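User: I'm writing a short report section on ligand binding and want a predicted complex to refer to. Could you take this sequence and FE2/S2 (inorganic) cluster and write out the structure as tokens? A short remark afterwards would be nice.
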Amino acid sequence: MSDQANITNQKDGSRFAQAAGDSILRAALRAGVGLAYECNSGGCGGCKFELLDGQIENLWPEAPGLSERDKRRGRHLACQCRALGDITIAAPSAGEYVPQQPPRRQSAQLAWVRDITHDIREFRFVADGAADFLPGQYAMLDLPGVTGSRAYSMSNTANGQREWHFQIRRVPHGQGTHTLFDRLAVGDADDVARAVGAQPGNAVGA
Ligand code: FES
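Assistant: Sure. The structure tokens for the complex follow:
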């Protein structure tokens, strides 16, 4: 796979670059292109697109957001696919999906944890960049050993200390929360993608 690929959306004529490590959806949002989406984590099917030309890599073939019927019809999830070279797609888009703050990848370290209840824990990360998200936004966490990103709403507000707080409920058999609760230790490095979308409420399950 080359480091950068150009993606053309035939539906709206937009064209944007995908950097190494980005999904098609994340590349679009970084470029200020409003591809339709909801969860950004493979669960809802809100980011379906058709591949018209070129090759893609599917990062999570079993993602629940895509039905067998979708697969037979040649549909894919923009949040779970990467372009392998230049591609042309047909994907719905709208102005409401254009991010007010384009997402940016940050690296973060788990700095502090505390148990709130028997199955809810607060995790505080300190990132290498600004914590200047908006109320209602969430972060996509790439956790070690976990397939795909996980979306969690911040429980704090924008701050100058680069702190990102999350109050997360353990999900039985959930890969993401298993890693957070049982494998990550204070001081571990983690990758945090900057807040994207506008999902009110607390933790989104993993
Ligand atoms: S945005 Fe929900 S599956 Fe991609």
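A remark for your report: The first strand starts at residue 4 and ends at 9. The helical segments are 24-30, 68-72, 175-183.
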